[in-house]
Amino acid sequence: MSRKNQIIYCNCCGKEICAESLAERTSFLTVKKEWGYFSHKKDGKIHSADICEECCQKLAETFAIPPEEEEITEFV
User: What is the largest CA-CA distance in the chain?
Assistant: First the structure.
């Protein structure tokens, strides 16, 4: 994650996404992965990143198998 001085930045493009206090009201993707025994990474190594909506779309367009999409009709 690229979070400095209470500001969240996109790990892909470096653009400021939002203040941490507004994180729940802003659209971005947070990815967090704890690597385990069967990975090639050191056991217990954790990688995390915040990705803005634009970079997330660009990344998804590079996938050989597109991500699944579903639509919700009721927002909580």
Answer: 42
Q: What is the pLDDT of residues 10-43, one digit of tens each?
A: 999 999 999 988 888 889 999 999 887 777 777 7
Among candidates 56, 51, 55, which has minimal Cα distance to 67? 56
CA 76/CA 74 separation, integer angstroms: 6
Return the amino acid letter for 76. Answer: V
Q: How far apart are CA 56 and CA 38, in angstroms?
A: 27
The count of other CB atoms within 10 Å of the CB of residue 53 is 13
CB atoms closer than 10 angstroms to residue 18: 18
- For residue 57, give the amino acid letter: Q
Tens digit of pLDDT for each residue in 46-65? 999 999 999 999 999 999 99
